[in-house]
Design goal:
mainly alpha, single chain, two-stranded antiparallel ribbon, about 950 residues
């Protein structure tokens, strides 16, 4: 049975039964039932705002608190203006901790524009989230965002941050935007409902419901030109009734007028302006001020036109339904009214309105600058300077998106080409920090048309290359970056080395040998003195395995220089160098320090790449919970930034962790979703990491044949196999050998291991040496296996990679037990079990426990009530009713870490639900 989607679910809204049902489900999601975010899209006039209003009314009837924001073209350049409108009823957030109140005050307080200290973007997002969470604790909330296409980018970033973290909170978010202008943060990753054209039946019913419904040819013509657009179906009959369309659709019409009509959007905007000629001049003047201001604040209009009785002047417009004045605000009937009013005026009239508003906003320099920019008739140095100053204030508050917008417009208004180029370049840099690689690429690409200065052009190419690399276009990125490095090698070695260091990241991710050869060739042209960090990273990427002693000296030189002068760039480069050389603990320290500095600087755009690198090092270091937290952070930031390389990589790492912890079905699903639509041939590092994730999922599922095929695909099928990725593939050899033994493919795997050993220099890192010894032991005959197992475990340095070492202990223990050497096997199996339990690597925990039992050892789990001090503290707080997030804030942990510990507490206490904690802890105390 099919639902009749033309029959209204609400008698006041025709033809939207499916949309209303979906919105009803969204409201139900505050109780934990389904997705809590919904994106509503459609063409102008499709009825999105009507559906948002309906949702507000229905939510209010259900007892939900309502917070609303409507985007405004006039405030699109004002950083965080949209979030301020949304949060205004909740500010200043007196119930929040002092640090979070301070962050909100810096962004939204009366002195916000005067703060010189940079506002940490992440702290602001967390503080906004805390404010929403505090309000939600008092009662469920519904967040409504209308006309999101006109929100400032900073507000979009904050809203996206909120949207991705609503799970578990009684909060729902509905965001409505024009279908061609959905903000990039919301265009892919949330459920969407497109409010399309009404069916012909529903359109006819809506048309017939108008006060003066048309008949005959006019009716057919309106239905054809309206094309199911509800707003047109309402407005066109009004125009016809007033005689304004008779020439087109009257009895003498041929019916072909629709062919010459303007496009739908322009036609609707013109219709909205149809009432203007009949309105008094003061009314038109007031309406134009409303349209030019872009805000609904009546006090702005009163200040701008003291000689005009604004309230009285707007009365005729209110009578014809163009506006509604209430609570000190001027509300337009529809956003398109603003566009219609604005474009119905002459340029001179519009310009005068902006100048009038600018004069009234003398005490608000940011808004004044934008009004002056709108009034500019051409390039204007004074206005450009004002916008540039506004950008600096935005940067000082951490508003990099607003700064980029202001600087881009300032560049357009700047007469001097050289200064215009510099401002555009600075705008691109701000956009990079704001996390908008596509925007960075577009602006940096225009710098070359404005200047012949080779330095500026090279810096622009460097930014463009960064943007391309972050979005997985490594080939294009390297064409720019290697070109800059080579051309600047003699004249500007610092710039050349910076370009080479940036290129090295794409070279690594690409994995193509050609680019490593080019990196080596161009680096030989550059004087690397004075830049040890960039030099170390670029050289390490070229060949991390064959020249390890020399690369270790470069790393030491870089660390010595870092001790004298710390910088974000050097920390990042040296962190990457330490990671690629298997100095994993050093990499964790360096990248962790980098993340700390980036958070304080509010550089959301660059956090994603560093967070991803940190996640990988933490994973290898055996800090799996922290690694998952870092991967989550990297993923959300990368998704919001459009950094596809990190988005895919973070999801692959999370899938790998799922597999290693036993959830093989979810791991395979997540790994598949991570690379959907991605050409992995462009990024061999991601290709082999994806193969490893899927391979380990298959291994855990017991499908050893598939596991082997997946892991075998990390090496070529040549007569002498080589790694698909020259660095990453090598660390999967141990897992490949383990799968091969169980799949009966030991001979094939042996050819891979032998080829790798033959191609390596005799001094690999302790980690890689242990991996090779484990793989060789698993595939070796009885005589050689023990030697290689012991060699894999001999170096104390391998303690830095606990999971890999535990796997070797397990393999060796199994090997010993099968040879009736159970007493020798038990210490190895116990060492493996301890590690697997700590990491919550359940498949390996169960396998090791079974081996220990077979070896004659007892493998009792922790008795009930035997909690670690931290587990006890977390359990006691949870028993008091605190949420995971509350506990995390109190103990300075992540919510995921809290959840991990509670996952271990429940079986220890013999309970299955949070509500049982209090009784279980009391019982334990009595015992």
């Amino acid at each position: 049975m099919h639902a009749d989607t033309d029959r209204p679910a609400d008698p006041g809204i025709l033809g939207r039964a499916a949309e209303l049902a979906r919105l009803d489900r969204l409201l139900g999601a505050v109780d934990g039932g389904g997705p809590q975010v919904l994106v509503l899209t459609g063409e102008p006039g499709a009825g999105k705002s009507t559906l948002v209003d309906w949702t507000a009314e229905r939510g209010r009837a259900r007892g939900l608190g309502i917070l609303r924001v409507r985007g405004s073209e006039g405030e699109a350049g004002l950083g965080l203006s949209g979030v301020h409108q949304l949060l205004h009823p909740l500010l200043p957030g007196d119930g929040l901790p002092a640090g979070q109140r301070e962050a909100l005050d810096r962004a939204f307080g009366p002195e916000a524009a005067e703060y010189e200290l940079r506002l940490d973007q992440l702290s602001l997002c967390v503080s906004v989230f805390a404010l929403i969470a505090e309000a939600a604790a008092r009662g469920p909330l519904l967040l409504l965002v209308d006309d999101a296409q006109w929100l400032d980018l900073g507000s979009v970033d904050v809203l996206a941050f909120l949207a991705r973290r609503l799970e578990g909170r009684p909060v729902a978010l509905l965001l409505a935007a024009r279908e061609e202008s959905v903000p990039a943060r919301f265009d892919r990753d949330f459920p969407q409902v497109t409010v399309g054209p009404l069916s012909r039946t529903a359109a006819g019913r809506l048309l017939d419901a108008q006060p003066d419904p048309p008949r005959g040819k006019a009716r057919a013509e309106i239905l054809r030109q309206a094309a199911g657009n509800p707003l047109a179906l309402i407005e066109l009959p009004r125009a016809l009734a007033r005689g304004r369309t008779a020439g087109a659709w009257g009895s003498g019409s041929s019916g072909g007028a629709g062919g010459t009509a303007l496009p739908l959007t322009a036609r609707l905007e013109n219709l909205f302006a149809a009432d203007l000629p009949g309105l008094p001049a003061p009314t038109r003047e007031a309406l134009l001020l409303v349209a030019a201001a872009g805000t609904a604040d009546l006090t702005d209009l009163v200040r701008a036109a003291p000689a005009l009785d604004v309230v009285r002047a707007l009365d005729p417009a209110e009578r014809v339904g163009l506006v509604r004045v209430e609570s000190g605000r001027v509300l337009l009937r529809h956003p398109l009214v603003r566009s219609a009013v604005y474009h119905a005026a002459s340029f001179q009239e519009r310009r005068q309105a902006h100048l009038t508003l600018a004069a009234a906003l003398a005490e608000e320099p940011d808004r004044r600058a934008w009004q002056l920019a709108a009034a500019a008739t051409g390039q204007d140095a004074e206005v450009a300077d004002a916008l540039a100053e506004s950008a600096e204030r935005a940067r000082g508050r951490g508003g990099y998106a607003a700064a980029a917008t202001a600087l881009e417009r300032a560049a357009e208004l700047t007469p001097a080409p050289e200064l215009r180029a510099r401002r555009l370049l600075t705008a691109a840099q701000s956009a990079m920090f704001a996390g908008h690689p596509q925007w960075v690429g577009e602006m940096s690409g225009r710098v070359g048309d404005l200047t012949e200065d080779p330095r500026l052009r090279a810096e622009a190419s460097l930014l463009g290359g960064w943007a391309l690399g972050v979005t997985l276009r490594h080939k294009d990125a390297l064409a720019l970056l290697l070109g800059v490095a080579e051309s600047a090698a003699a004249s500007a070695p610092d710039l050349a080395l910076g370009a080479l260091s940036t290129a090295a990241t794409s070279v690594y991710n690409s994995g193509a040998s050609y680019y490593r050869t080019e990196l080596r060739r161009i680096s030989a042209l550059i004087d690397e003195d004075g830049h040890p960090a960039d030099c170390a990273w670029a050289q390490a990427v070229i060949d991390p395995h064959r020249e390890r002693p020399r690369l270790m000296r470069l790393l030491e030189d870089g660390l010595a220089a870092l001790a004298q002068e710390e910088s974000l760039g050097n920390l990042t480069a040296l962190g990457g160098t330490a990671w690629i050389l298997d100095e994993t603990e050093q990499a964790v320290r360096l990248l962790g320090r980098t993340m700390d500095l980036l958070r304080r600087a509010g550089s959301a755009g660059t956090n994603a790449t560093v967070a991803q690198a940190l996640a990988l090092t933490l994973f290898e270091n055996g800090s799996w919970t922290a690694a998952e937290d870092a991967a989550d952070e990297a993923f959300w930031m990368a998704t919001e930034a459009g950094a596809d390389n990190v988005t895919v990589g973070a999801r692959v790492l999370r899938a790998t962790l799922r597999a290693l912890r036993g959830d093989h079905a979810a791991a395979r699903t997540r790994a598949t979703e991570a690379v959907r639509g991605v050409d992995l041939r462009r990024s061999l590092s991601l290709q082999v990491r994806h193969r490893h994730a899927v391979g380990m999922a298959a291994f855990v599922a017991g499908d050893h044949a598939d596991a082997y095929e997946q892991l075998r695909a990390t090496f070529t099928r040549d007569f002498r196999p080589v790694p698909v990725h020259y660095h990453a593939s090598l660390y999967y050899l141990g897992d490949l050998a383990a799968a091969a033994v169980r799949a009966g493919r030991a001979d094939d795997a042996r050819t891979v291991v032998d080829a790798v050993v033959h191609g390596l220099k005799p001094d690999p890192s302790p980690r890689l040496a242990a991996v090779l010894h484990r793989a060789t032991a698993l595939l070796a005959g009885t005589g050689d296996a023990e030697h290689h197992f012991r060699a894999a475990l001999a170096d104390p340095a391998t303690d830095c990679w606990p999971f890999e070492k535990a796997l070797t202990h397990l393999d060796f223990g199994e090997w010993l037990r099968r040879r009736r050497r159970s007493a020798e096997a038990r210490p190895h199996l116990n060492a493996a079990l301890e590690c697997f339990q700590r990491l919550d690597a359940r498949p390996w925990t169960e396998r090791t426990a079974a081996e220990l039992r077979a070896a004659g050892a007892a493998t009792a789990t922790a008795p009930a009530g035997e909690l670690t001090p931290q587990e006890r503290q977390i359990a006691e707080l949870a028993a008091q009713g605190l949420t995971n997030r509350d506990i995390a804030a109190r103990l300075y942990l992540s919510p995921r870490t809290v959840g991990y510990h509670l996952h271990k507490v429940f079986p220890k206490l013999g309970i299955t639900a949070r509500a049982q904690l209090r009784d279980a802890l009391m019982q334990e105390g009595r015992e």
